[in-house]
Amino acid sequence: MQLELHASAEDRRVAALAAAAIGLTLAEAAIPLPLPGVKPGLANIVTLVVLYRYGWRMAAWVAGLRIVAGALALGQFLTPAFLLSLSGGVASLLLLALASRLPARWFGPVGLSLLAAFAHIGAQLLLVDTWLLPGTSILGLLPLFLSAAWITGLVNGFAAAHLLHTQESKP
Amino acid sequence: MTRPRPGDWLIVLSGLVLVGGLWLRQMDSLEGRVIVRLDGKVAVDTSLRLNRQIEINGPLGMSRIEIRDGRVRIASDPSPRQLCVRQGWIPPGGVAICLPNRVSVENAAAGYDTLNY
Lengths: 171, 117
Description:
heterodimer, A: mainly alpha, Arp2/3 complex 21 kDa subunit ARPC3, B: mini-chromosome maintenance (MCM) complex, domain 2, 2 helices, about 25% helix
């Protein structure tokens, strides 16, 4: 008996994009960072580009695959780090689902990236506060994490905007 | 597709305001405090940044507490052994207790908690 999986063109595209995102996640894990929890989140650039080019469903697939496969590759699957990454991913995707309905004339990838970054860190801090370190005042770290989210969100947003722009001019 | 649009700048700016406001609030709460207790009850709770003299009347007489240049000490006290006066400037997180005048002064430096640790 032979089991055959038929991969559609869309499946292949999701796989390729998720692979790019996973690559960024792995590369990012090698960068030494001063504080746990603060990282650039470069893979979110891929999520944003996919959101703009192929829609929210594809973006959700790519982000989900990246979170699971990235965690597997880093040996973090089902650890608190994975659950943090998952909660951030889910929150930012949910916010992006709402934000992508904003009028495109007024809101572009930069704004969406910032919103997603804030949703990301917000959900993660909420999870840390309620589940990982209950009773500890996370509030004191809020300015630090939100500043980091503001910077990374902005940078990633500009990166995504640039990619979308250059990809548009080259068909 | 390329330039950020007005709404984007709105989000960027409101994010900056939010973060800036949080930092300011944080700075405020990170300021050191001086807590003076009489009989175990808080008598004075003041900032470590403001130079001032605090005079407080215990059962034996007046204790004078001096806050200067972000430091705090007990300048004079009627207690016989003068232990709290000889303790000098109270280190961050430290306490000087004047007995039997029942006065204690705490340098409640900001952030002696798990976060700053």
